[in-house]
Request: fold
Amino acid sequence: MSSSFSQAFPPAPTSTEQNVGNLQGKVFIVTGAASGVGYELAKLLYRRNAIVYIAARSLEKVDRAIKDIKAMTPSSKGRLVPMIPDLSNFPTIKEAANEFLQKEDRLDVLVHNAGLMTPPASSKGEQDLEMATNCLGPFLLDQLLEPMLTRTASVEPTPDRVRVVWVSSMITASVPDGGVQFDKRGSPKVLKNAMQNYMQTKAGNVFLASEAAKRMHKEGIVSMVG
Reply:
């Protein structure tokens, strides 16, 4: 009960924007950064002179976000760059990752912030849209960018500065038994309960972050749930 309450009503933060130093030369990718929490994070990082890739599936929304953030922070020495993966469409993820790898020689932090919750029933594709957007797409992006993260960690003098952040949710509420339920083929089930179907993708984020932490730690990369 106390865990659920603290997630719904978190205490005052011990670290804020004021604790963030100069990020000039550091490179960040934030998915779902055209609006909401991702947008606010991108704005904060750019204010601290970082290079920030604004990743979202709509170029129009990304361009608008970049224009607005630049207008609010005209003195920044950073860069804002559009990145257009549709996390439910795997070929677009590979295309976006390859374009990033051609432009940059480092990646300090990858933030898996984008998410989809209870889409219309008519929006079904080959994969469950929520599972694809919230887990499978981010996992693919992670795999494509891991070599760059590893190279960055190898030249970063300060330990634990290269990170992958998986934004989850209140997984103590409405998560099905086992976190993620699988069918006989080993594929995630599409659950009839819409909230449970969404929450199992958020539990999946925790599982992915945990497994990535075990595998990436030896390379100097921190994988964590945000």
